[in-house]
Write a structure and sequence with these properties.
264 residues, alpha/beta, 5-stranded mixed beta sheet, 9 helices, 39% helix, 25% strand
Length: 264
């Protein structure tokens, strides 16, 4: 190859290099910035929210959803103490209202999302002799698991139901309080207690328990799951995108699949 041809080739390479570099830079600039969103949600939402996460991230790959599941009261307290949370989904509307009153959630950025039912359950293979909530008073029933009423909405609804039946005081020696509703489910699954009170949706994820009775609606406050965007969230655009997705037809189908009733 003569020097003249070699010189031309080198010149072409030098001309192309900046253009290639510019194209690469432009392509990188057009890629959405990776963003992490933290969602604190009631433990009873675990399976439904994880399926929603899988579907949402298929079309929003730049957004990473980080979940923190637990008792709604404990999650609310974490937010009050400054935990870095973007969206809160509570199994009690009262917790969302409290954060709104404290100025941590804007009223316009909160919405009732779902409803549920309260059920009395026992182990499927070794069931306790129960047919109604009133049977919990029987001497043969030694241990009953519920969520801690002060921090777990399902426990609060359970207490209200037993109070409405005028048997709460008689139950004190039998009650085992847990950190969240899923721990109640575990205790019943492992036959560590005779009975437990959980949500209807909780039994959708196990075949080790059976329903004894469904609590009548008038025996407890309405079971309403509310969602709210935390004011201090720094990712407003992405957080709003996921918040809106929670109200989409796709999310609705997933919630209903796990037994929740979607509120319009």
């Amino acid at each position: 190859m003569n020097k003249k041809i070699l010189g031309c080739l080198i010149s072409l390479v030098l001309i192309c290099l900046p253009a290639c570099s510019t194209n690469k830079t432009n392509k990188e600039a057009n890629q959405p910035k990776k963003v992490e969103i933290t969602i604190s949600a009631a433990a009873s939402l675990n399976e439904a929210m994880n399926e929603i996460k899988t579907n949402f991230q298929k079309t929003n790959q730049h957004i990473s959803l980080l979940y923190n599941f637990g008792g709604s009261g404990a999650l609310k307290q974490q937010i009050v103490q400054g935990a870095p949370v973007d969206i809160f989904i509570s199994a009690s509307k009262d917790h969302i209202n409290e954060l709104t009153k404290k100025g941590l959630i804007d009223y316009k950025n909160q919405k009732d999302l779902l409803s549920n039912q309260l059920v009395l359950i026992t182990n499927k293979r070794q069931p306790a002799p129960l047919e109604t909530f009133d049977d919990l008073e029987n001497k043969g029933i030694k241990k009953i698991a519920i969520g801690t009423p002060a921090t777990v909405p399902a426990g609060m609804y359970a207490k209200q139901t037993l109070e409405s039946l005028d048997i709460w005081e008689a139950m004190n020696a039998k009650i085992i309080q847990t950190k969240d509703v899923r721990q109640v489910l575990t205790y019943v699954e492992t036959n560590s207690v005779d009975a437990g009170i959980v949500y209807m949706t909780d039994i959708k994820v196990t075949d080790k328990v059976k329903i004894v009775a469904i609590a009548k609606e008038q025996t407890h406050d309405p079971i309403i799951y509310s969602a709210g965007i935390i004011k201090s969230s720094a990712q407003k655009k992405e957080v709003s995108l996921f918040y809106d997705y929670l109200h989409s037809a796709t999310a609705k189908d997933i919630f209903e699949k796990y037994g929740f009733q979607v509120l319009d």
